[in-house]
Amino acid sequence: MRYLQVKPAGAFDLRCDAIAPDKSISHRCAIFSLLSDRPSRVVNYLKAEDTLNTLAIVQQLGAEVQEREGIMTITPPKTPQEPDDVLDCGNSGTAMRLFCGFLASLPGHYVLTGDRYLRKRPMKRVTAPLSQIGAKLDGREEGNLAPLCIRGHRLRAFNYESPIASAQVKSAMILAALRSDGVCTYKEPELSRDHTERMLRGMGANIESWETITIEPLRGPLEPLDIRVPADPSSAFFFAVAAAIVPGGRVVIENVTLNPTRIEAYEVLKRMGARVELVEKENRYEPIGDIVVTHGGALQGVEVSERIAWLIDELPALSIAMAVAKGRSVVKNAGELRVKESDRIACVVEGLRRCGIEATEREDGYEIEGGEIGSAEIDSCGDHRIAMSFAIAGLLAEMKITDIDCIETSFPNFLEILEKIAKIRTWKEGEA
Ligand code: S3P
Predict the structure, then answer these.
(1) Distance between CA atoms of 277 and 270, rounded to whole angstroms?
(2) How confident is the model at residue 47 (pLDDT cuts 50, 70, 90)?
(3) Is residue 55 pLDDT above 90, yes or no?
(4) Closest CA to 383 of 365, 358, 401
(5) Spatial separation of the C-alpha atoms in residues 403 and 415, rounded to whole Å
(6) Which range of residues forms the domain containing residue 95?
(7) How far is CA 50 from the centre of its chain?
């Protein structure tokens, strides 16, 4: 286990072209490459634990992966092969849920497992609708918990109305629909991130999205992907918050996806008083450009209760901005936070209280009374976003964070970038 100490910093002006590549898009690059019969070309694939696990699974299914001069080539097998070992998704809910949808119709026997955190996360949200259309899936607690086993089977066409706005559930069902026996429809209560629809459409799949998504089954292999993965706005957001809370702070984040379903947290930061500028530079599968965030004076408290799916991953970092804002901030309708890599409602509230901030847990969110962040020792709860959020709080008051290895799941060079604006120290258990 590793520890991190972060000491307060002064004003900074950071230009960053090294934010981790997008995690959601990288997972999809690896999995969707199996839907073509020709090699996909991927530049800037995220080399973090979660997405490397996904790539390893794709290889276990028969794909060949090569990288030359920064270009990764994923050559799919003629037909995916039945693996002779379990498929380990590590910490990644995205990988596990998307593979459920992908493998459900593929002849063969598959076992999906993950680390101790992932094995506690609910999978019924995908195993139940998939079972309803003929998939043979099982797991602990009646198919809710991994390890999950899948016996590929013919799937029936469906009209599914999901009770949750989840891109993982949606993507699993779209992948299932592509190999079902007829046209399918999928409806969600609120649009969730739409990388799957955009990327598959770019590969030639027949997917229409209005209020409802209509998916036609594949008639043959799709076009391969040819993509440069943009920077991850969720990873970049830690530095956006840093700029918003440190007087004289400014960050330029380059080549990040500006997909509206991913950048709502930047809008909230703007509402709180930070200066946020978005500059679109290109559009390939998604709009891509630069985001500039500048400290705009004292932040104001804010209520966040809408478009939660568009900022769910940024809420822990946003809670640090809320903790230093004037007045009360409220987060509502965000019960999904309880089933992320950790119970993020409990971990955020506990962490903020340790920093001397008044924070109250609600069933579906929390309330934070802005104040002055004090020095604290924080447990990451094994959750990368909790670890990185409180590391950013360390720019205002010295923080010690326990168990930072989880940062490797999404943002391996986070500390290198943080080091440019703060004094940091890391050490292993047993070292001084
Ligand atoms: C993701 C979807 C979201 C998000 C997760 C990545 C994806 O999860 O929180 O980090 O890549 O599809 P849900 O689908 O559970 O909302």
Answers:
(1) 9
(2) very high
(3) yes
(4) 401
(5) 14
(6) 23-212
(7) 10
CB distance 313 to ligand 1 below 6 Å: yes
**Cα–Cα dist 101/129, whole Å:** 10
Q: From atom 11 of ligand 1, which residue's Cα is the shortest distance away?
A: 24
Residue 222 lies in a domain: no
Q: Do residues 365 and 333 touch, judged by C-beta distance below 8 A?
A: yes
How far apart, in whole angstroms, are the C-alpha atoms of residue 332 and residue 186? 26
Supply the residue whose CA is at minimum distance from atom 15 of ligand 1: 166
Same structural domain for residues 419 and 321?
yes
pLDDT per residue over 397-416, tens digit each? 999 999 999 999 999 999 99
Q: How far is 341 from 188, CA to CA, in rounded Å?
A: 22
Gap from CA of 94 to ligand 1 centroid (Å): 6
Give the ranges where 23-89 is alpha helix by DSSP (H): 23-32, 49-60
CB atoms under 10 Å from CB of 431, counted, come to 8
Q: How many CA atoms lie within 13 A of 228 on its CB side?
A: 12
Distance from the alpha carbon of residue 193 to the mean position of ligand 1, in angstroms: 8
Q: What is the pLDDT of residue 431?
A: 87
% of the chain with per-residue pLDDT over 70 = 100
Clarify whether residues 129 and 247 are in a common domain. no
Residues 395 and 279 in one domain: yes
Burial class (CB in 10 A: 0-12, 13-18, 19+), 356: middle
* Amino acid identity at 18: A
Distance CA 64, CA 76 (A): 7
Bridge partners, residue 75, by sequence: 64
Q: Determine if the pTM surpasses 0.85.
A: yes
Q: Per residue in 288-301, pLDDT tens?
A: 999 999 999 999 99
